[in-house]
Amino acid sequence: MLLKLGVQSSAVYSDFLASCRRNLNDQLSTIQSQKQEAVDVLEFVDNCCSAFLADLSLVTALSQRFFPNQARSVEEVNSTSVIETPYQGSLNTSTLNFCLCLRE
Fold first, then answer.
1. Which domain of life is it from (predicted)?
2. What is the pTM assigned to this prediction?
3. Is the residue at 68 inside a domain?
């Protein structure tokens, strides 16, 4: 709605990223605290990781849908070593784009 009211997309995108960053960081803090407690592995994955990954996917989809011009290029993502994981090859490029934006 803000975009339809003439607010600059970069300002809306910046606010969107800040809100998502806070939400995902809160979820990660919760995951870390539950990890330190003696929680069943399956319960931990079901309650924490699946919810976090679902929210990350949702935020990535929303970012692409409403801010397509703000996405980084695939070449820029591939040349960045911010996310170092053995699973990097199997991660969706859109998710990597969004994760890189959240880390900034």
1. Eukaryota
2. 0.59
3. yes
Could you tell me the residue range of the domain that residue 66 belongs to?
9-103
| Cβ(27)–Cβ(55) below 8 Å | yes
Residue 70: inside a domain, yes or no?
yes
Q: What is the pLDDT of residues 10-26, one digit of tens each?
A: 788 888 888 888 888 88
Whole-angstrom distance, CA of residue 43 vs CA of residue 12:
36
Measured at the alpha carbon of residue 100, what is the angle toward residues 99 and 102, in degrees to the nearest 5?
65
Which tokens hold the place of 75? 């070449």
CB 34 within 8 A of CB 94: no
- Alpha-carbon gap, residue 80 to 37, rounded angstroms: 34
Give the count of domains, the chain. Answer: 1
**Which residues have C-beta within 8 Å of that of residue 93, sequence separation ≥ 6?**
74, 77
Model confidence pLDDT, tens digit, residues 21-49:
888 888 888 877 776 676 677 877 777 77
